[in-house]
Specification:
The strands form two sheets. The protein has a seven-stranded parallel β-sheet, with helices on both faces. Strands 10-9-8-11-12-13 form a six-stranded parallel β-sheet, with helices on both faces. Helix 9 packs across helix 12 and helix 11 packs across helix 13. Helix content is 43%, strand content 14%. The N and C termini lie far apart (46 Å). The protein is globular and about 70 Å long. It contains 14 helices and 13 strands. By secondary structure, it is an alpha/beta fold. Strand 4, helix 4 and strand 5 (137-141) form a beta-alpha-beta unit.
Length: 427
């Protein structure tokens, strides 16, 4: 769909024709095929389609071919400093300092009214920029850092320290923003318990895009399977990054069990990660597991469309895996661990595994592989869930309302006698 057609098919901006000038701050490569970056891209595109002046301020790297007409303000490339993966890296300290300078430049040049920062690094940059400019900050929370940060480390000592650092960030960063958006209800409760006031936070779940996953004919599916050399084997699919919080070790353990019953089953790990980014346990894979490099969304889409089952083993409760919405939009039966089972209702539009063990996860896979009719029913229900409950128009409606609330609050604070400057909020 063209941008002009999208504008015509979406609601009017507002009765008064209000357009917002927004800097979407993303301290990461952008765009990539990772979930957070996908959410940011679709959010920015949706805002632009409604006529808002939204720009993304981000790192130097990204998949330029995925941008269409989306304006991106990048930092310059710095030799020796790249951050293509998730997680803490020393290089990011330099990149984030440069990104702060870029945000300040964009605020001045584009007359930005509000910053919309995603994840903790961008929030810290936004807080610094707010202190210097007075522009209000909306923090878009994708996770609880105390839960995710330890998964990037192997030693117990490092994990313990990461948990402490994450807990401090969870307690101090969100409550200092002017408003918070959390992507799931659990995260709303978590942040409120850490000092975010009730009127300063709301839940806005991400959206899904069924139109990006047209139902695949049997002939087309056969061609895709032949291209990847799958043949008639049952294909179990995981898409996304390979970071520790994804709990991929559970999938490898489960496959050992699955293969005792379904001997030709194949687990496909579709990822944009480069070979040097692979964790040690994925560098020598058994024959029943295949790593497929995915440098573009079309490849990911094709793999999802021909998979017999789509898998999400992530235990962490605080996020909302975008891969789940992609699986469901493509009408795939999903097997998901309970912690990350957002949008999935056990037995109705997918299967939720409530325990952490590989035995239970493997049993759910084996049961569904033996029942193609049930897979079709669950997949159809999953697609309806996305169509009816997780549309992007709903997301943009809510985000527009948030901008209106924050800017009205700012105007009231400025107008009030003896009001504290809005851009400088004390702890």
């Amino acid at each position: 769909m063209t941008r002009e057609a999208m504008v015509e098919s979406t609601p009017a901006i507002a009765a008064e024709g209000r357009r917002y000038r927004v800097a979407i701050v993303a301290a990461c490569p952008f765009p990539t095929l990772q979930g957070s970056q996908l959410l940011i891209r679709r959010l920015a595109s949706g805002l632009r389609a409604r006529g808002h002046d939204a720009v993304v301020v981000t790192y130097a790297e990204g998949l330029e071919q995925a941008l269409a007409d989306l304006p991106v303000r990048r930092i310059p490339r710095i030799p020796g400093f790249r951050a293509l993966g998730s997680g803490p890296r020393v290089a990011k300290l330099v990149l984030d300092a440069v990104l702060l300078a870029r945000v300040l430049d964009v605020i001045r040049r584009d007359h930005i009214e509000v910053m919309h920062a995603h994840n903790y690094e961008a929030a810290l940059i936004g807080l610094a920029a707010r202190r210097l400019t007075g522009v209000p900050l909306i923090y878009h929370s994708h996770n609880a850092l105390a839960e995710e940060l330890p998964t990037y480390f192997r030693s117990r000592t490092a994990r313990r320290l990461a948990r402490v650092v994450g807990a401090v960030a969870d307690r101090e960063v969100p409550r200092r923003a002017d408003h918070c958006i959390a992507i799931c209800r659990e995260l709303v409760g978590f942040l409120r318990a850490r000092g975010v006031e009730e009127e300063a936070i709301e839940m806005i779940a991400p959206g899904g895009s069924p139109e990006e996953f047209p139902l695949c004919s049997s002939a087309e599916a056969a061609r895709i399977r032949a291209r990847f050399g799958f043949g008639e084997r049952p294909v179990l699919l995981y898409t996304g990054n390979l970071d520790g919080y994804q709990n991929l070790e559970l999938l490898l353990e489960s496959m050992t069990i699955v293969r005792r019953t379904v001997r030709d089953a194949l687990l496909v790990l579709a990822t944009h990660a480069t070979p040097r980014d692979l964790p040690p346990y994925l560098r020598r894979l058994p024959a029943e597991v295949r790593l497929v490099s995915t440098g573009d969304f079309a490849t990911v889409r094709d793999l999802i469309q021909v998979a017999d089952l789509a898998l999400c083993p992530r235990r962490e409760w605080s996020g909302f895996p975008m891969k789940l919405l992609n699986y469901m939009a493509a009408a795939k039966a999903v097997v998901v661990s309970a912690g990350s089972a957002k949008a999935v209702r056990d037995g109705r539009n997918g299967v939720v595994v409530g325990t952490d063990g590989a035995d239970a996860y493997a049993a759910a896979i084996i049961d569904l592989l033996a029942d193609p009719a049930r897979r079709r029913v669950l997949g159809a229900a999953a697609r309806r869930t996305v169509e009816n409950e997780y549309g992007w128009e709903r997301v943009i409606d809510q985000v527009e309302s948030t901008y209106q609330t924050v800017l009205a609050r700012r105007a009231g604070a400025v107008a009030a006698p003896n009001a504290q400057p809005f851009g400088i909020l004390e702890a």
